[in-house]
Design brief:
Layout (H helix, E strand, L loop, with lengths): L4 E4 L3 E6 L7 H9 L13 H9 L9 E3 L1 E6 L5 E5 L1 E4 L10 H9 L7 E4 L12 E2 L2 H17 L4 E5 L3 H9 L3 E11 L12 H6 L3 H16 L3 E6 L5 H17 L8 H10 L4 E7 L5 E9 L8 E9 L6 H16 L4 E6 L10 E11 L2 H26 L13
Parallel strand pairs: 7-9, 14-15
Antiparallel strand pairs: 1-2, 2-4, 3-6, 4-5, 5-8, 6-7, 9-16, 10-15, 10-16, 11-12, 12-13, 13-14
Helix pairs in contact: 2-9, 4-5, 7-10, 8-9
Length: 409
């Protein structure tokens, strides 16, 4: 393991580590627990999750995700007071906040864009705290430490992706550039009554006739094919389930011409380390043979999670509308039955609107080393935010509800 690099300020010692295990898991997770959004952001920023990405070989220097975790330690008592999962990257894959055009512009002008710095959860388009800190002063110091490390490493840029409101307050104080993008989220809230849906039929009744009919037709196609679903949560998900899920995930990625980001070792590791965070839906054909699976993450706030996150799916057999059933209808029905308030469908996918996942703005912050490019990107982001607002308004016009609700900000 590489030795951490250190620097000192009046209040904090800054250490940059290149192996997640150089930071005690209990200290990292204690900071996460203290964050304003820490109880409803899923398992993704937990030390166990990030360490599993590293230990399985999915997010390492060899895959273009070199860990440079920036940590701040109190000079007074030696405690960990702030930390961020910074990765030095040689590409822009697996981020879901797209900057390929920025990289191309740098290249056209003979300016190097890679390596760059990214504060993010690899391969995970789920918003949540990224700048962990015990208080606002430590979080502000963490932003300064991140920028200092980016400059010292000669990075072209620093990107804090899909963070929290507390993150943005600290980033904005250091003049990072603000960016908005759109995801699609379902909320367990009746559009006219304002309370939670009572059940699946209550949810369907809130939709327009054509959307309700379409969902019923899609679900009927799966049922008529003899497909049934088995739902397992936490420790009930077996090693065989994880192995089958990983097989489905790999095959579906490859059918789309892409190498999978994650491997079976990662899935097994998070299944063991964070069992209560996972919900698995396994589809079986009429003979009882498993043919597909989808994986949902849950926020860790008890028997009734505040949020669920649709993450991965795959299939080894083709059935019409199976993707919609496994990835949307089964999870939404589970959320309704268990009082879950929000289901996030991940990045992209306008088809999700017809399934009542509405456009929702998520945020990122950016710093570019080259002054001219920083100015140009800043101007671009002003225009992009206006375009995003128009895009979201246009999407809202296609709301599936009989009386369209206001999409959350």
């Amino acid at each position: 393991m590489d030795a951490p690099t250190s620097s000192e300020s009046a209040d904090y010692v800054t250490r940059v580590v290149h192996d997640p295990h150089a930071v005690p898991a209990h200290a990292w997770n204690a900071l996460l627990h203290d964050q304003p959004e820490g109880q409803a952001c899923g398992p993704f920023m937990r030390h166990e999750y990030l360490a599993a990405l590293h230990d399985s070989g999915c997010a390492t220097a060899a895959t273009g995700w070199a860990p440079h975790w920036v940590t701040l330690w109190s000079r007074a008592d030696g405690a960990l007071v702030a930390a961020a999962p910074l990765y030095v990257k040689t590409h822009s894959y697996g981020e879901y906040v797209f900057d390929w055009a920025w990289a191309e512009a740098h290249h056209r002008h003979g300016v190097r864009y890679y390596p760059k710095g990214v504060v993010a959860v690899p391969f995970t388009p789920v918003a949540g705290p990224r700048l962990l800190a015990r208080d606002a002063a430590a979080r502000a110091a963490l932003v300064r430490a991140l920028l200092a490390h980016a400059r010292a490493q000669g990075l072209s840029s620093l990107h804090v992706l899909l963070g929290s409101a507390a993150d943005w307050a600290a980033a904005d104080a250091s003049d990072l550039l603000a960016r908005e993008t759109v995801q699609f989220h379902w909320h367990n809230r009746h559009p006219t009554r304002g309370d939670a849906f009572t059940d699946w039929e209550d949810f369907l009744a809130s939709l327009s006739h054509d959307k309700r009919k379409k969902i019923r037709q899609e679900r009927r196609k799966v049922a008529d094919a003899g497909v049934t679903f088995e739902v397992r949560r936490g420790a009930d998900i077996t090693a065989e389930d994880w192995a089958f899920f990983a097989r489905c995930y790999r095959q579906t990625y490859r059918e789309h011409g892409n190498p999978p980001y994650l491997n079976e070792a990662f899935f097994r590791a998070v299944g063991v380390a964070l069992p209560d965070a996972w919900l698995m839906f396994t589809a079986r054909d009429a003979a009882g043979t498993p043919i597909a699976a989808s994986l949902v993450a849950l926020s860790d706030d008890g028997a009734s999670p505040a949020a669920a996150y649709g993450r991965y799916w795959g299939a080894v057999a083709r059935v019409d509308c199976l993707h919609f059933e496994a990835c949307y209808y089964q999870p939404l029905a589970w959320c309704l039955a268990h009082g879950v308030g929000r289901f996030e469908g991940g990045a992209q996918g306008e088809h999700k609107i017809a399934r009542a996942l509405l456009p929702t703005v998520v945020h990122s912050r950016h710093w570019l080393a080259h002054p001219a490019f920083a100015d140009a990107v800043g101007d671009y982001l002003v225009r992009e935010r206006a375009a995003t607002a128009h895009y979201r308004a246009a999407l809202q016009a296609h709301s599936p509800f009989r009386q369209a609700p206001c999409a959350p900000a």
